Amino acid sequence: MLNLQSGDRIELFYEDASATTIRAIVGRLLTDRDEGMGIEVEDYCAYWIEITVDEPSDMDAKQVVLLGTDFQYRLNGRRVTLHKRQDYLVRSSGVSDQAQTSGEPCVLHIYR
Q1: Which of the ends of the chain has fewer CB neighbours closer than 10 A, N or C?
Q2: pTM score > 0.70 for this model?
Q3: What is the Cα–Cα distance from 90 to 98, expressed in whole angstroms?
């Protein structure tokens, strides 16, 4: 399970059609209560992820990804694999993950 936050850029791949890549931005993370669901849903849904789709442009921009209690992500009822987009990850230090893992020395300047 990923530690997602609002604003994270993600990629989703349908498990039954892995050649299809969906790129999106995480909007809100919602609990069953936030979604107005009853307690019986707690057996099936862990939380809901509102996303805005960047690509492909042929699908509705606003979508909801469901994380089930089985720790599987689903989009429109189909299982998906979800990854944070590495090209957009930036740590609070301001140094991107890509720079930190490239083997190149990282220099962080701190100004007071």
Answers
A1: C
A2: no
A3: 9
